Predict the structure.
Amino acid sequence: MSYNTIHVEASRSYDILIGRNILPRIGEFIRPLVGECRIGLLTDSTVDTLYGEKIIEYLSDAGYNVCKFVVPAGEASKCAENLLDFLNFLAECKLTRSDAVVAFGGGVVGDMAGLSAALFLRGVKYIQIPTTLLSAVDSSVGGKTAIDIPAGKNLVGAFYQPSLVCCDTVLMDTLTPEIYRDGCAEVIKYGVILDKNLYDTLQNVPFDRESVVARCVEIKRDVVQQDEFDNGVRGLLNFGHTFGHAIEKLSNFGVSHGAAVAKGMLIAAKMAPLCGFCNVALELAALLEKYGFDLSCNYSADELYDAILSDKKRRGGEISVVLPRAIGDCILVTLPVEELYDKLKKVIG
Ligand code: GLY
């Protein structure tokens, strides 16, 4: 099977392989990176039911001894208790510093496996095998790892790059339409922030999965290479996320990440003209609706503002938001929080 290779130069450099039906070759892909080692595999209950036996078969056939740990599917699993249980499991399985962690799942599994790999024995190698569109185009790339704590989502984490990302797009065939659509929000995000050609391609629904995933990953790679530790341009990847995270939080995570980001991107697009930039809100709304996103916002400006104040992106009395200047061209704007409130009032009412 043919596949695309996208190389990332970061504190640890690695390849991202993207193709259809490449998972059976996982042993061949990881051998040059981890050698003969034991593998601590983290997955979730949904992925385990669908593909758990297959991944163990592929790795065992390649000579790997695999210890599998399964967490219930869903964001609630990305917690300190599961992190500690998995770390303890790795220790009980007698993994050593020359062994490796494999994340087999979506963002929850990828973020938690990555953080476990960063912490276990002060750092072991890890491999990302994303199974959702969202994790393929976003969370598996760039080395952000995290868990949630009661005070907020992703508040405990580390930058820790994987040794390989192996993205077999066939795994996305079994995603529910809602979970697939979550990833589409992030795909549309890449078009709006940095690539008008990609944005235009997305007008044809459904898009060609392999080429679109590869393009999104290239865009993210280029951003991460410029700003691995998120002190500048990487902030562009947060387009729609300041408002989206607030909506997720206000809904007690009843609104999924992608659905919230879609709403958040539209709020940002409506705010752009209030900051002197052009208005792409109508055309963005039309594209998001093509993908079936519900763009209504059930929260007031006051509710959103309160939720935004606890965002990681706030620095003292200022907060950064990403606003479109045109399709394919976004800018990070830092606003005093009071000014953000005034603009939110004008957008949301
Ligand atoms: N998900 C945004 C980032 O990786 O920076």
